[in-house]
Specification:
Helix content: 25-40%
Number of strands: 40
Strand order of the largest sheet: 1-18-3-14-15
Number of helices: 11
Distance between the termini: 59 Å
Radius of gyration: 45 Å
Structural class: alpha+beta
Shape: elongated
Strand content: 25-35%
Largest sheet: 5 strands, antiparallel
Number of domains: 6
Length: about 675
């Protein structure tokens, strides 16, 4: 049977209470020490979290200052917003430009001719016919006054012909089929008060985006004025009316005549978008927008000051109250603070002459608390007179002396300084040159297919049968290749040109990856001859800072002190190409430092992990203390149980002796007898 124990039952002592109090007294010093240590560690952990938040906020303020692109903010205005609107992406050079718009670009628009009896539709469900509509895009010389084409249609080499199968031959069915095909043609239906009229419009403006429509009519007559043939518009058959001829925009900018397929001009002025709205004149002006840079620099200073104040609070000590900040004496905080102050005090290598430290642009340090202050007037003057100086002081920026060389990138390994640029070889494009003049007659099923591989992407196209000029055949080949699904999906484009009837096929990509070849096709020999010459593209080669650089396409990337420094050489000559001055400004340097600090393997995470490990160790110490106190408790219970038994025995003996003594006769008494 199990033994039933009741501590203190024999002695009357409250053994449970006594043991409990003794055990608590035994563990109290250790428990208090562990609680104190854990509280200190939790405070440090919270302090590191506060520091990490402040560091992250400071790094966020650097985002617009680390790269030169963040300093390219521009503003653009048009003196007559009814004639043109203007905007800039930041890369444009400041200036003023006189604009005169004499003609807006228009899209080609064709409509069913209600003068034809078969085209007098009174309901959307009226049926034209079924078959196939083939749309070509290009330049037409259709003369509406004479109702004829004055010259052959010239296909747009950048837009392939598109076909739409018409199975629902109603007005609405044809409209929906063309729109669903998404081929660059918009279809709509207009009611003119008497008849419904089907309208086809090119999605793009410009003379080279005129429409030519060929019909394969299921009624077997592709040219008559009935059935689906009502929608034909080509030199052989045209039954649609032209309501708007396709035309280019015509304008002049500072006296230079310009022609554009669209009313939105993105390449006329580098970095500027001009939207033409009406005929007339306007003055376009582009200027630097210093307000954004001022706001970004101010945010940098404010955020840095907040970080400094946060670090001061975390590391503080008040001798009067003897209270210390959560990270007082912390090596991680102290190291970070010293790194930042040293980094922001050292001159920037490669900066603009006379502007190598923050004080040169009006940012000074307060010697009392280490915060920064801005002289807004001085900063504004520098931004007005020498904005590149501010860029060089903050961003990773390169300043080439050659206008055909552009700074593209740098790495953390790129050192500031001036590097000479020498080009041994310019980048070239891969091309294939025909060995004989092209056969200008293309016959379906005979010599109409061509398989081409460009930059590793292969496609096969079928040309339209017909008799071409060398120029129009080049346009047809280019249009079909660039319009192929394979080329479009992979961003591949080619140019096809002709000289003396010989065709040349060129990739638009530069470098050794630019390779063009003809792989098959029944028209390959007729178009390019029996032995065309394939010439692979070449990468740019040369040196940066006297050290051989690595070329890829038009980009040259340096080594040594210029490691990671990338420049784009877009043209020019071989030989000495001047210099590029590279500076790694304060914002870029600090951002790199903070990337390391905030990384998963950085000092903050390491310190946080170390504290968490120590907190876990305290938990283990608590478990060990609990086990030790359990042993103490068991020992005390054994001792008190023994004491309880001893006391119980003594009490029993005392009771026995008392009873025995009470039973002894008293000398001198009669012991209850009268004798």
């Amino acid at each position: 049977m199990p033994t039933i124990t009741a501590p203190g039952l024999g002695s009357g002592l409250d053994v449970n209470s006594i043991v409990s109090q003794l055990v608590a007294a035994e563990g109290l010093p250790s428990s208090q020490r562990l609680d104190r240590n854990e509280a200190e560690l939790q405070a440090r952990l919270s302090g590191l979290g506060t520091l990490k938040g402040a560091v992250s906020a400071f790094q966020s303020s650097l985002s617009s200052l680390t790269q030169a692109s963040g300093f390219q903010s521009r503003s653009a205005q048009s003196s007559d917003a009814d004639v043109a609107s203007v905007s800039t992406n930041g890369s444009s050079a400041p200036g003023s430009f006189e604009l005169e718009v004499t003609q807006l670009a228009e899209a080609h628009s064709l409509v069913t001719d209600s003068a034809l009896p078969a085209a007098q539709f009174t309901a959307l469900s009226d049926v034209l016919g079924t078959g196939t509509l083939t749309f070509k895009f290009g330049t037409t010389d259709y003369n509406p006054e004479k109702d004829k084409f004055d010259s052959p249609f010239v296909p747009n080499p950048d837009k392939a012909e598109q076909s739409v199968q018409i199975s629902d031959g109603s007005l609405s069915g044809i409209r929906d089929a063309v729109n669903a095909a998404d081929i660059g043609v918009n279809a709509s239906i207009i009611f003119d008060g008497s008849n419904y009229r089907l309208v086809f419009s090119s999605s793009d403006t410009g003379a080279a985006n005129s429409l030519e429509i060929a019909v394969t009519d299921d009624d077997a007559d592709n040219n008559d004025a009935s059935g689906l043939s009502l929608l034909s518009f080509n030199a052989s058959s045209h039954h649609l009316s032209q309501t708007q001829a396709a035309q280019d925009a015509r304008l002049s900018l500072n006296g230079i005549d310009i022609q554009s397929a669209g009313n939105t001009l993105t390449r006329t002025l580098d970095g500027v978008t001009i939207n033409l709205l009406a005929q007339g004149t306007s003055t376009l002006s582009v200027s630097r927008d210093a307000s954004k840079t001022t706001a970004d620099v101010t945010a940098f200073v404010d955020s840095y000051n907040t970080l400094v104040q946060t670090m001061d609070g975390l590391s503080s000590f008040d001798p009067d109250s003897e209270r210390a900040g959560a990270l007082n004496g912390d090596a991680t905080l102290r190291t970070l603070e010293n790194q930042l102050r040293r980094m922001l005090s050292e001159p920037v290598v490669g900066s603009v002459s006379g502007f190598s430290i923050l004080a040169d642009i009006g940012i000074t340090r307060n010697g009392q608390d280490g915060t920064l202050a801005i002289d807004s007037g001085k900063l504004g003057d520098v931004l007005k007179d020498n904005p590149d100086a501010v860029t060089a002081l903050f961003a990773a920026a390169g300043r080439p002396t050659d206008s055909l060389i552009e700074f593209s990138r740098s790495s953390d390994a790129t050192r500031g300084g001036e590097y000479a640029v020498n080009i041994n070889q310019l980048a070239t494009q891969g091309r294939l040159v025909g060995s004989a003049a092209a056969n200008l007659t293309i016959t379906g099923g005979s010599n109409d297919t061509l398989s081409v591989s460009a930059n590793g992407v292969a496609t096969t196209v079928t040309l339209a049968a017909g008799v071409y000029t060398a120029a129009s055949l080049a346009n047809e080949i280019q249009s079909k290749l660039n319009g192929s699904e394979e080329f479009q999906d992979n961003g591949v484009t080619v140019d096809v040109a002709e000289a003396a009837g010989i065709l040349t096929l060129s990739s638009n990509q530069y470098g050794s990856a630019s390779v063009v070849s003809i792989t098959a096709g029944n028209g390959a020999t007729d178009m390019f001859g029996a032995a065309p010459t394939s010439i692979n593209g070449l990468d740019v080669t040369g040196t940066i800072g006297g050290t051989m650089a690595t070329g890829s396409g038009q980009t040259l990337t340096g080594a040594g002190n210029a490691a990671g420094l990338g420049i784009v050489v877009s043209g020019g000559v071989t030989g000495d190409r001047g210099n590029i001055v590279f500076s790694r400004g304060y914002a870029n340097q600090v951002n790199t430092l903070l990337d390391d600090v905030l990384a998963s393997s950085g000092v903050l995470e390491s310190a946080t992990g170390g504290i968490n490990d120590r907190i876990k160790d305290i938990g283990d110490d608590r478990d060990a203390l609990a086990r030790r106190l359990e042993i103490v408790e068991q020992r005390l219970f054994r001792q008190f149980n023994a004491l309880d038994l001893l006391v119980s025995n003594l009490q029993s003996t005392s009771t026995f002796l008392t009873n025995q003594l009470a039973a002894l006769p008293v000398i001198g008494s009669d012991n209850g007898s009268n004798q």
